[in-house]
Each structure stands twice: as structure tokens, then as C-alpha cells.
Amino acid sequence: MKIAVDAMGGDNAPSAPVNGALQAIEKIADLEIILVGDHDRIMPLIQDSPRHTRLHIHHAPDVIGMGEAPVQAVRRKPDSSMVQAMKLVKTGKAAAVISAGNTGALMTAGLFILGRMTGIERPALSALLPVMNGWGLLLLDVGANLDPKPSQLVQYGIMGAYYCQEVYGIENPRVGLLNVGEEPRKGTPLIRETYERLQKSGLNFVGNIESRELMQGRADIVVSDGFSGNIALKLTEGLARDLMGEFKKLLMKNFKTKMAAYLLKDGLMDLKRRMDYQEYGGAPLLGLDQIVYKVHGASQEKAFYSAIQVAYNYCQKNTQTRLRERVREEEAHQ
């Protein structure tokens, strides 16, 4: 199996994506990775690798910057690493794309080159969040669609539920709706209508979820408009990062606190792993016709390795084909 990695996307490119790819090649025997980007910058990072035969470079001289306007960048830079990676999937030369680059450009390139899954009105950008109890939380949308329709939010719930069944083995995933209160009549007209539709959808709908409850594990999937979802995601990420930083400073304050830290070492390491987004790797752009994973822009090699592993498993199980079938079935029932 071949997976295309945008080697120039993200704050730590090309070292982080390349080193993550090297780790994945070492662990997964039948995996080949196509590193898409500037050959002269990538080659020195892999030339001494004993697994070099399963790493390939697809030269792409341009890079789409994080601050560039998505549509213009995709159109003006056909030789960028992101666009070229998408084309490898489109032509069947790779099974999936992984990128830490410009999120808007990644979704735009996915729509322009790969297209939408039949029956899906608008794809969603998802994100995996840590929770206090349980495996985690899939939040979608977190920025792709700022002004969705109720039908689109229901589709997010359907795709998210099936993704959790297939990838995480959750038999009957709980779907929640991000809102300002638990009561059914709370929220905007969009949210109120979505609530009613989710109740009738056949999903395991558990009702409204307030943002303060996201990390409590009340739901496996939470659907949201892209504006609210993006705010919730960044608040959660920032809070987790800052709290862990303050906790570390507190425990290193003096001899007594350092002794406490030593005694609590195992528990603290487990908490750190659960709060670290790099442990979760990437999250899929659900609703595109092919497989695209978005990795956090500040990711180090660990996150790329994790994302490659998840994408590999997704492809191995042929999950995308079954997701297409499920979407068609749901569309036929409406």
C-alpha cells in the first residue's frame, strides 16, 4: 500500500513528516510512502535510511503557505506539494493523503481534485479531542463549513458514527450536538432544527452537549457548525497545553513538589499522553470521495507516524467503500 505524505506542509516540515514516515516504514512491513515535496530538501533526510527502498520522492517545487487564501493558492500552485499529493490519490498512485498544511487549502484541493462523496452535501473537517473517561471524542465540523444546513449536520453525525464504528470499534456510537444548553429548544434555528432531525435519524443521539461537557465523555461524536467547532477545538487545545505547562512548573518548584512528581510519575505520564494531540495523529476530512487526513500544523514526527498508522488501517479495512455504501443507504431512506 502506498500513502502520499505532504512533506512540505506544517511548521516543522520537512523534518517532521519525513521522520514520521521513516518510523511508519519501520513498523509497517507492507507500507510504501511517497514523500511529496522539494527533492533537494527531502533527500538528505532519507538517504541514510535502511528502508529507503520503500520511500519514494515525488518532486513538487512549490509550497502553499499557511496564510495563503485557499482557492487562489490551489489554483495558482498546481506544482505545490499538497496539490500533487492529491493528484497521486486521484490517479490511483496512492491510497491516501496526509498533510499538516493550510487547512482551508487542503479542503479546497480535496474538493477540486477528489470531489465529494456521492450523497454528501458538504465535507467536514474533524478533530480528535481527549476526554477524561473513554477513548476520545470526534468533533466535526471544526472549520470547513461555517454556515451549514441542518441536513449537513445530520450527515456529519452519520459519517462520524460510522467512522467511529469502523476505526475505533465502538458498536453504537453516541452522537451529541454542540449547543449553549441541554434543553431541546435552546440555540439558534439551525441548532433547533438539527436537534429534531437527529432525533429522527436512527443515530444514537444523546442530545445537546455544552462546551464544558466536551471532555467528560458524554458522547463519542459531537456535531457542530464549523465556526463554533473551531472555537471549541482551539480552546480545548490551548487549555490542555497551558494547564499541563502550569502543572509542570508547579511540580518542579521545590524539593517537596519534585518528590511528589516522582511518586505520581506514572499517572502524570498517562495524563500527558491523553492530553497530547500528537498521540491522536490526524483526523479525516469526512465526505471527500477519497481518504485525506489533516495533521495539526505544529505536529512533530510522532503525530505524522500516528496519522500514517491510522490511515493505513483505514485503507486496509476498505472503510471508505463501506462508508460510501452507508451514505447511499441513508440517502435512500430520507
From TrEMBL:
It is found in: Cytoplasm. Belongs to the PlsX family. InterPro entries: FA_synthesis (IPR003664), Phospholipid_synth_PlsX-like (IPR012281). PANTHER family: FATTY ACID/PHOSPHOLIPID SYNTHESIS PROTEIN PLSX, PHOSPHATE ACYLTRANSFERASE. This is Phosphate acyltransferase. One of its GO terms (biological process) is fatty acid biosynthetic process. HAMAP family: PlsX. Catalyzes the reversible formation of acyl-phosphate (acyl-PO(4)) from acyl-[acyl-carrier-protein] (acyl-ACP). This enzyme utilizes acyl-ACP as fatty acyl donor, but not acyl-CoA. SUPFAM superfamilies: Isocitrate/Isopropylmalate dehydrogenase-like. One of its GO terms (molecular function) is phosphate:acyl-[acyl carrier protein] acyltransferase activity. Transmembrane segments: none annotated. Pathway: Lipid metabolism; phospholipid metabolism. Its EC number is 2.3.1.274. Homodimer. Probably interacts with PlsY. Keywords: Acyltransferase, Cytoplasm, Lipid biosynthesis, Lipid metabolism, Phospholipid biosynthesis, Phospholipid metabolism, Transferase. It is an enzyme of class 2 (transferase). It catalyses: a fatty acyl-[ACP] + phosphate = an acyl phosphate + holo-[ACP]. One of its GO terms (cellular component) is cytoplasm.
